[in-house]
Amino acid sequence: MVGVSIVAYVYLFPAPPAPSTTDPEPKQDQQIAGTQTGCLNKDEVAEITVERKQRDLGDSEGRVLVLIKNRIGNKEKRRFYADNIRVNYHSVESHGCGVYAVRMFNYDYSKTLQPFGYREELWTYDYTGEGNAILLLTEKSEKYVSYYDQDFRVDPSERYLVLEKGYAGSSDGVYDIVFKDLKTMENVFVLPVSEVWENNPDTISGSSVGFDQGWSKDGRYFWANFFGGAPVFGYIRIDSQTWTYELFPAPPDVLGGDQLNLETGWLTVHPGNVWFGVAELFEEEKAKRRVQGIGTDLYLHNLLTGQRLFVAHTDEPIHYFKPKWLSDAELEYSLPSGERKVFTVPK
Fold it and tell me: How confident is the model over 228-238, as pLDDT tens digits?
């Protein structure tokens, strides 16, 4: 069995040399390389570290370090770097036969508007370190053109690539969830977001799509959410066997930090919690609730069955329990003291 781990963005490194102008430039929707053959062996694991080039909070340039180790003994066998990586909340994905990342070329970090020749590409690396561009995402020639958003997801068996094309409120009205065959880069399914909006006008109309959830373990279902700022309005589950979908409206007060278990449908909910985005307003509301004796509860809500379970309570107002699924049945959460506890979903 192969394994992959991701390490948080905690390192900085010296500026690398300028990228070569001879790097291959893929055309839109054109695959540059075939399927990679350098997969992890059953006795190997990969450790992936994303390193920033500059200390900033937004998207920036960085690189990825890939360490391949023995599963038993954790001894390093080989390593390689991937440079010019666009560092954001989802910079890289790793699977049994490939490391996938968005790379930037001709990037000038001192400028908001990038110069002529700037481009972003999706690359794949096998575990020998060989990398190939597979899709052009964005380019700046005569004008800035975005073919796809930088966010992407690859299914566990590396059959499909999921992308966003367009955005909510775009002038041309294009906003699609696109599934591509990773071997051919041909579209296998395109779901217009407007179709989902029209079928659910009172739930998610006009909202944006987030790929925070991703694929189920068996690679059958792809989950995404519909949101407007911090509030989440609903979740969509797309079946890759039938290319049909279901929309599950979110219960009230679900925010971006709540955690959905993709295998069971259990979703964390902090009833009554709000997000202001302004520290002063947030503290004022906390003080008001503290006087009124209003604390915070944590619940689980099952999107598939509608069942609801109480998990924990604290007297601290608007507390975020920092929930994290340890398994399909175990939810870890944090009390105001910092103590971590585990709730087991009853069978």
Answer: 999 999 999 99
